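Why Peptidase M14 domain-containing protein? Reviewers of the renewal asked for a concrete example.
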Amino acid sequence: MKTRTTHLDIVIILVLSNFFLPTSMSQKKIRRKDYSGYQVHRVNVNSSDHQTLLQTLFQLLEADVWKEPTQFLSHFDVMIPGKSLTMFKDALRDLKLSHSLRIRDVQVLIDDEHVTHGKRHPRRTRRFRFNQYNDYSTIIRFMKYFRRANSDIVSVVQVGITYEGRKIFALKISEKSDRVKPVIWQDALIHAREWVTGSTMLWVANRMVQGYRKGETDSVQLIRNFDWLLVPVWNVDGYLYTWKEDRLWRKSRSESGSMGCRGVDLNRNFLTPNRGGGTSSNYICSGVYQGTTAFSEPETETVSQYLKTLNLAAFISVHSFSQLWMFPFGYTKTHSPDYSDLDFISDHAVRAIYDLHGVTYQQGPVVDKIYKVSGGSVDWAHEKLCVKYAFAVELRDRGEYGFLLPKEDLIPTAEEYFAALKTVGRHLMTTNSTRSSLCNDAIG
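Here is what the prediction returned.
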């Protein structure tokens, strides 16, 4: 009897024969990558076997997985090149897996992000627009103007350096005081394509200073009780690359070996136990490549050294997308001894978000809400810097636009985050200790 060969069989044959197409998005020299015809699909998963097979299929198709299944969500969000769509759909049909279209043409959304960018007057810094995405040079000009206009409480400080030799800057907001105040650290764009995070960081800095000037109680108390460090662009090299060559580039831009691949996932490059476990990789062309060693990258090494000099009350790393307010751990399912306090403050943060615009965020440990991952900055800050209140926040949305959030959502997203941030700040002003219980017996 003749056996029908399915598209799934073809995938298996290719896997067994070690035939993997090169990950061209990593290996080729890309110039203004065109995403015309690329689509984002949500693929529902029925079993762990399907999940493993789909991961292989996506590698074969040169697909970019935007979101993986979790213990709460049984689907992938994945971007498929136009040339691979037919094989993708046929393979899913053989697997009897359902899928739905999320983004019909990725390039259309990318083009929309840039519609107004060329119509501005880039030298007129007072016209900085928080309701659209801004390139790196515009961000730096705004930071300098913001510092000059608010020189009594705002400064720009260097916190690190990049692989390509660029300085990593933070906005420091601090009211002069005779005492050494605890620091609340916030960073954005450690992943280059998560543009909404940088926009949010700048809006929050501006809003906090405006509130301080107007005598608003929350902003005055936040600035009076804490020093604030806000990093709008951590992965500077990668962010520049997203504007010039590949909008959806994620990693840094370091040279990663003889295969021609570039970049390290900086949020897999911190020192945590179980290095390489979970959603991180030793494969240099992977989008979640962890690097040769912890802190192998200048972006993580130099910033981590700077962080060690601070009296940190909180560490907040801002990402997109999924609408999550998370806390340690990512590398293990074991709960932090500070779980109750972290869950309590996270619950109040997501309630503040919902009360503002009716948008629902979920809270919980990283490993529960997304996936197991080692080398994350939040786990490192909690364990090694002894920061009790360490959070990883995933901003809007839940997959309708993903990394390509429309400009209309930028300010509402920032407003929600600021509402949650004020809740965190108010809690920290009343707590007895911001030191992680993991470090209570440590010296220093």
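The longest strand covers residues 312-320. This is the kind of structural detail the renewal will allow us to pursue systematically.
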